[in-house]
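#help-structures
NK: newbie question, is this the right format to request a structure? protein is ADP-ribose pyrophosphatase YjhB (NUDIX family)
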Amino acid sequence: MSSPEPGTVRLQRVVVHAVLRSGPRLLVVPEGPGGALALPAAVLGHGESPGQGLRRALSAAGVGAVRTGQPVEARSVVAAHPGPDGEEVDVHTVHLVHSVQLLHGGHLGATARGAEDGRWVQAARLPGLPVAPDATFPVTAAQLPAPVPAGDGEVAVRRQRLAAYAVVVDDGRLLLTRLSERTPSPGRWTLPGGGVDHGEHPCVAAVREVHEETGNHVEVDELVEVGSEHFTGRSPAGVLEDFHALRVIVTATAPDAVEPVVLDVGGSTDLARWVPLGEAPALGLVGVAARGLQIARRSAALAEERTAGA
């Protein structure tokens, strides 16, 4: 990725967008200059899950009681934006578009119901999903990297990290990597994946990480989900962090699967293996890997059902 000018502040943030349909219609709200119509959206706050952000955006549009569905699209945009004090900020915005469903007993408030305000549009008339442009979401002080506190007392540094992980299955085997001594959980197993670089699309990050950690080239099949975890802990460097992890999980295929080899030597991975699905639980999986195993098993079960019904 290109380097910013010296002294330029970098910011990576996530914006979630809600796709709520009523028959052939799509819910939109006025956003940005001129009140252009776009999907309800919100910048994720520190510690806020995608589901919470989506519910906040929809609540502002008069919608309550929804279930968050699967992400349907991801976009990656890099642009310079003014900061809260007028300084230039090099902003990488990852837009995650999610389907949502109105729950039984949920409601559409007056602003969402009214046909006269143009909030419901015929989806077939749109060229695609109307995602609000970056300029709609100003850079606030709360979004910017938190400064390291001064003084003798130790205070947790706020950090939000976006990462991408891949569920890769070949011949009934799940691709897993073992965490090295450089990590907080050495010896445990996880999905291949890691941090999304500034300016990088999450799917591109997943492909890159799989290759670096296992030597396999993969192709992304589908965005599956975006997980969120908020906790306080120490970084590998020993810094106390108020840490917010956002994890994009994709499914991917290795067209020419090879025996895994760790290419990024000295990093967070010290071993990679193809592991039969039935043997994976005994390895000692971290949370994202346990979730990946569930996804892999579900996909395998669906494939068996399709084969049986053929």
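mod (FA): yep, format's fine, and the tokens are attached above. Helices lie at 50-60, 110-113, 202-214, 287-309.
NK: thank you!
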